[in-house]
Specification:
Oligomer: single chain
Number of strands: 9
Distance between the termini: 50 Å
Helix content: 40-55%
Radius of gyration: 19 Å
Strand content: 15-25%
Number of helices: 10
Order of helices and strands: EHHHHEHEHHHEEEEEEHH
Shape: globular
Strand order of the largest sheet: 1-7-6-5-4-9-8
Structural class: alpha+beta
Length: 282
């Protein structure tokens, strides 16, 4: 049996989550993120989501990969201070670049939430997404990732992929980026916010850049070999950009627990040096 799309209203209640308001100060930023579900719950309110759909890009083929990654960065790494003056266009451009880089927590003045900021600066954000796409596609050959993996796999392979995504989302408590491999060389992307184990499979709550301001629900049944995308095509989801998620978590740790961040950085360096020495000796 193929996976079928289900209306959000039919399954949303099963996730038992409450919408949250974004962090409005440095103090609340760190306190909010003690709850590992806080960021996920932000997605239940459209004011925390991109207000415009995936569009533009090379050959007008869209910027879904970068739209999704920018959305995830913004959910995790922004603070809003509506009482302050709004940024100028040049200042907004710099804030957008910082969100893209995910190397620091970004304070956005003059706005109450991400959707307000993004709606007022959508041309600047779109331009940055297209620059990001060109940088990855031309300089880093990221387009090759769209050629890897099959659009349809064996039932066992599909179950393994879904179990892997579940672990990232519900055990590691991260919002997962999935590349959706479509037949041929095309690949879409979405973010998996929540997953729920049900009899014979999973329910997935996702953010799709093709459908702005909302989340959607999909269901996977054991035995499926692909997922049906709104009746247009079938695809297989692959968990990717996990290192980017680790980078986001490190940025939060650096802001909220500098000592733990320094200890982790030191340990990481020692491990890297040790591995480098072993390679040299070998």
């Amino acid at each position: 049996m193929k996976v079928t799309f289900l209306a959000l209203a039919a399954l949303a209640c099963s996730f038992q989550v409450l919408a949250q308001t974004p962090s409005l100060s440095e103090e609340s930023f760190c306190a909010d993120r003690v709850d590992k579900n806080f960021i996920k719950d932000l997605t239940m309110d459209s004011s925390n989501l991109m207000p415009f759909r995936n569009h533009g890009g090379i050959a007008n083929g869209g910027v879904c990969w970068w739209h999704s990654r920018f959305q995830r960065n913004a959910l995790y790494l922004t603070i809003y201070k509506p009482e302050l003056a709004r940024p100028t266009q040049d200042e907004a451009r710099e804030l957008i670049k910082k969100i893209r880089s995910a190397t620091e927590v970004v304070v956005i003045p003059g706005y109450s939430n991400f959707s307000e900021f993004a709606d007022n600066n959508k041309a600047l954000i779109q331009r940055e997404l297209e620059k990001w796409q060109k940088g990855d596609g031309i300089l880093r050959f990221a387009w090759v990732k769209g050629l890897s993996g099959a659009a349809e796999v064996t039932p066992d392979k599909m179950k393994g992929l879904m179990d892997q995504i579940y672990e990232e989302v519900e055990v590691n408590k991260n919002i997962a980026y999935n590349k959706l491999q479509i037949p041929g060389i095309v690949a879409h992307a979405w973010l998996v916010v929540h997953m729920e184990k049900v009899s014979g499979g999973y329910n997935l709550e996702i953010i799709d850049s093709n459908f702005a301001r909302t989340t959607e629900i999909y269901r996977y049944h054991e035995g499926d070999t692909s997922i049906n995308y709104h009746g247009y095509f079938h695809f297989t989801p692959y968990l990717e950009q996990t290192n980017e998620m680790k980078k986001i978590n490190k940025t939060i740790l650096k802001k909220c627990d500098p000592e733990a961040y320094q200890a982790g950085a030191k340990k990481e360096k020692e491990t890297k040096d040790a591995n480098s020495n072993n390679d040299t000796e070998g």
